[in-house]
Amino acid sequence: MGTLPPVVHSTARAIAPREFLDALHATCNPRFPYDRGRSHKPIALAISGGVDSMALAYLSTKIRTTDHWFKVADHPVSNPVAFVVNHDLRKGMVEEVDQVINALRGLKIFAYVAKIDWAQVLGKGVDPNTVPNIETLARQQRYRKLGTFARNCKTMSLLTAHHEDDQYETILMRLLSGHGYRGLRGMRPATDIPECYDMHGIYQSGFIDDQRSKHPVWNIYPNRAERTKILRALRDDFHFDLATFAENAEPMMWRTDLKDAFSADQDYDEWIARSNKPAPPLPTMDFEDGGVMVYRPLLHFSKDRLIATCLENNVPWFEDHTNKDPTLTMRNAVRQMWKNHRLPEALQKPAILRLAERCRKRVAFEEAEADRLLQSALVPHFEPSTGTLVVQLPKFRLPRVSILSSKSPEGRQKRLDHHRYIAALLLRKLISMVTPERELNQAGQLDHLASMLFPSLAQDGVEPPPPKPYVICGVHFVPMMGPNSQPFRWLLTRAPYASNVPRPRTGFWAPNIRGRWGKKPHQWKTTGWSGFKLYDGRYWIRLLSRLPGNLHVMPFEAEHQKPFKEALDEQSKNDLAAMLKRYAPGKIRYTLPGIYSRVDVTGVIQRDEYWPDIEELDKYGALRKRNADGQWEIREEAVENEESKDAEKKSSDTVEQELLHSSASKRARLLQAKAWEDDITERRTDNPPQLLALPTLGIHIPGLEDWLRWEIRYRKLDPDMLLTVKRRKFMPKRRKVRSQIRMSYRHMLLSGLIKPRYSRPVRRREVLKSKSK
What we know:
The protein is an alpha+beta fold.
């Protein structure tokens, strides 16, 4: 690793700071338009030491001096912070990283260094250079390190130094791999950080916790002037006591209409559960948002211009010689090919970049067409607590064309293929709301499903497939008909788990035994909330537990339903039956998450009992050992070691009593308790675990609220998709509801049920009229 010789194209010129700011402004769009924060926030830089990343570091130092209030995403920029990752794949990398740190200090940039521990990733004794996919693993670990540092520094914008030549090489590699026009778009200028899908606060999550913090990154609260304006508007609109109004109005006014206006989709509920018993409402669930965004502002600058920028401003950089080995990676081979050989004109950089631009425009046009089709679809019901979605798809009609085009079979087939592809894009958007999978099928692979859901788009001469249940991307499509011959609808749910597929499982560690040993269960203290963990690709869950033993979040199984019901009280049993029948009928209920324990916690919750007596505890731990028959016997050497410490100073009569109170005996008893707890856990592995709660339904065994709390959120969804969830057509309009409120209020005033809060001022004309009389 050394300084690169000054080899640069003669026509290349350095990148000006204002030019770099324009590229940043076009790349870093606001994420939260209602953010009112005016405090400067740092931006993170991914630095490797090459010429591209060092040019990025230099240009980032010129942002604030060029424009003091320049915004990256949502915040004005303060000083940049650099993150350097030591991959530790060859000798001398520590010295190379030190050189990069010194160069960044010369630019007055504070830098953090992270080293990848390959022993933790691959296991001890495994040489990472012998692993065939080491480049993929290095990329994964690099992004996870970068995401962790960005979250800890509270900077949600990460800039990378990918440039125009990298874009060209990426498109060439995808062209060689057989990608379609969607893959030939190349790298996107802005995207969520990859390889961090299960890390909360880094990938599409963390916004809610940020708003709860004392100093949030995003400030969406209104300022004083806006609050005054809102309060004035509310005071003018609601000039009477709402609580008194609701209390007196409930027995006599349109209770049904008000309930219908703000309840869930009644048609769907009546179709799901034809029962007179009302089901309790589901607990509210928040949707996650936020996370770290990766921006690539140098995609429109060639490497020659980056070299010229460093040369003109005396910025040192360092070259990694492994990038010149064409046998190491496919990117190195492609770089060697286009730099040392003259490619056909269609494969040269200008032609490939124009191809990528055309592909981006085509994809944007198709996505816009799919969004317009989505606006005509009706989504009357979406319940994240159960993962169900009801959609009424629009009737697809081909647009009118000229007579000559309509008579052409080739033209009609081309239009059918295009509109069927747009319909597949619509289905892909709907699938993304329910699916547990991270990577969805391409729209071309949804052709059969599109023909089933849109029969008018079937190929000529081919009978469209009949509507029937269909599973794809982990989503179960179920056809349904509403009552009274309502329009045809589809129910989308999480697909039931196959018998040969392992169930998703997310584990949470029990509190440390040191804080529980020797105390009654009601004296146990929790160690605080656990971190959020991703379950089944859909839910972020965290727990606050005082219970012994590890807890697991697993699917609600049929074998656990009967013992769970028996443990509930009568009211909870009725609520569970009504909620399962209404919100999760059939096999949908067996996709709900449940909190399980391998340790029987009934004695802890109900009787405040857990630890065994001393005689039973003596069978375990440091004072006992298992023999060949699996029985516990006395370990004489352990007792002799503890007794020998005080045997010389104390008599034989008091040795046994003092041993129980010595620190060594406490440590031995603690080991015994740990061994006993592990043993009862192992003995329950053959038995089904104990179901404690169904968190998305809010149902749990009695008394659990004093021992276990949870918080569950749904993963981030596209805001445009959430806006498609419409209310029912028979729901009263807002103007109608307001008129009903005014009429009821006047009726209660005339009948004397309530008194006006403000008396009407007497007009001057009325005063003169009374005096004349």
